[in-house]
Amino acid sequence: MKINLDEIFDYTSFSVDREAHIVLESDQCTSCDQRACVVCCPARCYSWDEEARKMTFVHDGCLECGTCYVVCRKEAFSRWRYPRGGFGVSFRMT
Ligand code: SF4
Ligand code: SF4
Predict the structure, then answer these.
(1) pTM, whole model, 2 decimals?
(2) Cβ-count burial 1-30 (b if 16+ within 10 Å, e if not)
(3) Among 22, 27, 31, 37, which is best to mutate for testing ligand 1, by the most ligand atoms less than 8 A from CB?
């Protein structure tokens, strides 16, 4: 079965932990010359406002793929781990 990425949220549910599993030090993003996270995150958790020169990150819809951790060359996270037990994303493939 093929799934369009835009449809992935039809096959997922979340139990959001108030304690964020990813904490971004967004000050680092101001001087980042790539901002690969914005284009690589399949859940669109990262949003860059060029006019305000500000990064916004939300962990609520994180798919736990790990891509942002891999692509960020500045290691801009003060915390990056998977959610605590019982929290996070659940995938349903049927
Ligand atoms: S790649 Fe890292 S430093 Fe650059 S904008 Fe994304 S999170 Fe910030
Ligand atoms: S782990 Fe994946 S889904 Fe979660 S914020 Fe990073 S890139 Fe986005």
Answers:
(1) 0.91
(2) eeeeeeeeeeeeebebeeebbbebeeeebe
(3) 37
| Ligand nearest to the backbone CA of 82 | 2
Return the CATH fold of 5-91.
Alpha-Beta Plaits (3.30.70)
| Residue having the nearest C-alpha atom to atom 8 of ligand 1 | 29
Render pLDDT for 34-62 as a digit per residue (tens, 0 to 9): 999 999 999 999 999 999 999 999 999 99
Tens digits of residue pLDDT in 74-89: 999 999 999 999 999 9
List the chain domain ranges. 5-91
- Extended beta strands in 1-94, E state: 12-15, 22-24, 46-49, 54-57, 77-80, 88-91
Q: Which amino acid is at 5?
A: L
